[in-house]
Amino acid sequence: MVQAAADADPSPRGALPDRRVRARQEALPEAREQFRKVVERHPNSSYAPRARFLIGEAYYREPDFDKAAKEFEAFLAFYPRHQIADLVQFRLAMSYYDQIKPIEQEQVFALKAMDQFKKLVKEYPESRYATDGIAKIEVCRGRMAQKEVWVAAYYMNQGNPGGARQRLEKVIKDYPRAPVMPEALSLLADVNFSEGRDKEALELLRQVASDYSYTEWGKRAGQRLRQR
Fold first, then answer.
1. Measured between alpha carbons, how far is 109 from 114 in angstroms, rounded to an integer?
2. Where does 176-225 show beta strands of DSSP type E?
3. How do residues 63-86 score in pLDDT, each as one tens digit?
4. Are 1 and 30 contacting, i.e. CB atoms less than 8 angstroms apart?
5. CATH fold of 1-85
6. Do 35 and 55 meet the contact criterion of CB atoms below 8 Å apart?
7. For labeling, which of 75, 105, 130, 184 is most exposed (least CB within 10 Å)?
8. Which architecture does CATH list for 100-228?
9. How many CB atoms lie within 10 A of CB 152?
């Protein structure tokens, strides 16, 4: 059974051989125990690393992401240069990525996922998963920027433009490529208008209308400028 795992292609979608843990949830706990026995009885064998990975993979597919993350971390602590270490690092990052919450909630998992994807790209730059990791780093950054803008909008609605400014300026500084940039700039223009800084506000609206004319925010900025 373990030999099949050793010969299998360790890709994210096909990491578990067909004769092992399939999609059937009821098979996962039993399979996981079999893998654990291999690790315990043959810790120095060539099968132990993949068996340890498959313990985490079984948890991941249940899904029990917290337990999966712990198993993947244990694998990387024992076998950081193993031939499937990049896959395990990718799976660790995905264990957090798949737990990202709606934007109204804290984006702790987005931050954790981003950190792990960054580690994937740094430690395993030639990995087949590095390109996907880079893309997901940007997704995580976008989520965190979106959260800041959401909080800024809340502050504006509560009559706290100073609090909104702090959040929006952080987005502009730290997440310049985030999809929410035109919204952040537009909201900052509103903050400036509310504080009597009309010149700065108009400059921001012109930037949005020029640089993001293809977005709804760009169109709104253009309309606002024409009305003045």
1. 8
2. none
3. 999 999 999 999 999 999 999 999
4. no
5. 1.25.40
6. yes
7. 105
8. Alpha Horseshoe (1.25)
9. 28
pTM over 0.90: no
* Start-end of CATH 1.25.40.10 domains in the chain: 100-228
What are 156-204's pLDDT values in tens digits? 999 999 999 999 999 999 999 999 999 999 999 999 999 999 999 999 9
C-beta separation of 89 from 123 below 8 A? yes
| Percentage of the chain lying above the pLDDT 70 cut | 89
**What letter represents residue 194's amino acid?**
S
Q: What is the DSSP letter of 178?
A: -
Contacts 24+ apart (CB under 8 A), 73-79: 75/49, 78/49, 78/52, 79/49, 79/52
Q: What is residue 167's three-state secondary structure?
A: helix
N- to C-terminal Cα separation, the chain: 73
CA distance 78 to 166: 43
Q: 126: Cβ–Cβ under 8 A, 6 or more apart, which residues?
A: none
